[in-house]
Amino acid sequence: MKTIDSLLAENRVWATEKVASDPEYFKRLSQDQKPDILWIGCSDSRVPAEVIVNAQPGEIFVHRNIANQVISTDFNGLSVLQYAVKVLKVNHIIVCGHYNCGGVKAALNKQSGDLLIANKWLMHIKDVYRLHKDEIEALPTEMERVNRLVELNVIEQVSRLAQTSIIQYAWQQEKQPIVHGCVYSLHDGLIKKLITMDETTPIDPIYLYDFS
Ligand code: CO
Q: What whole-number distance in Å separates Cα of residue 107 and Cα of residue 115?
């Protein structure tokens, strides 16, 4: 098991190796960040954004929470979104879920008396289940039901991004970013694309902002 001392030792080795292979590495990185991608993923330790797409520091702006959700009252996630879109001007946003997600699995069960706060976070996934209950319940095994809800949850989060004032304003003014919904498999390490939305995607009028 990793301890804080072993982590710090690993960090010193990493920093030393970086400078050895590229003496200007930290000087360059410390000046600015210009990532082209915002990643919204699950907090699960097995799905580290940069690692699974072989990205380097400076390439991806990352937000992770339980079950990769976009929630319209979550100032943490919305602040990340606003900064990524308005200041960094990312061209792409990726919502990446993963099969066998513990958060999605928990949402398919009863509320937990021990995890009262986490229950509230997962309530939004129960809403996704309710929207697609017939399709999900037609699947024969719990694993298939969880994994289909994982996919539907990703698609729902992409739609929720399109419902934000931040994305709608950027689409109107800049014609970007493109929003992608993906799912990662813990079994083979591969990412599959499920949905893409851009400024041409129709939005239900009840979610439309009027910026005029
Ligand atoms: Co997860």
A: 12
φ, ψ of residue 183 to 5 degrees: the values are: -135, 140
Same domain, 16 and 111: no
41 and 17 within one domain? no
Q: Are residues 141 and 194 in the same domain?
A: yes
For residue range 32-67, list pLDDT tens digits in order: 999 999 999 999 999 999 999 999 999 999 999 999
Task: Count up the domains in the chain and report the number.
Answer: 2
Query: Among this protein's residues, is 42 annotated catalytic?
Result: yes
Mean pLDDT calculated for residue range 11-15: 97
Q: Is residue 212 a part of any domain in this protein? A: no
Dist. CA 150 → ligand 1 center (Å): 9
Choose the catalytic residue: 22, 28, 36, 46.
46
Q: What is the pTM of this model?
A: 0.95
Q: By residue range, what is the domain housing residue 19?
A: 1-28
Reference 92, options 192, 177, 200, 195; nearest CA is 177
- The one catalytic residue in 5, 32, 96, 98 is 98
Q: Are residues 68 and 1 in the same domain?
A: no
Angle at 167 between CA 163 and CA 170, to 5 degrees: 145
CA of 80 to the centre of ligand 1 (A): 19
**What strands, in cross-sheet order, belong to the sheet with 60-65?**
60-65, 37-42, 92-98, 178-184, 191-197
Asked whether residue 47 is assigned to any structural domain, the reply reads yes
113 vs 125, higher pLDDT: 125
For 113-123, the pLDDT digits (tens) are 899 999 999 99
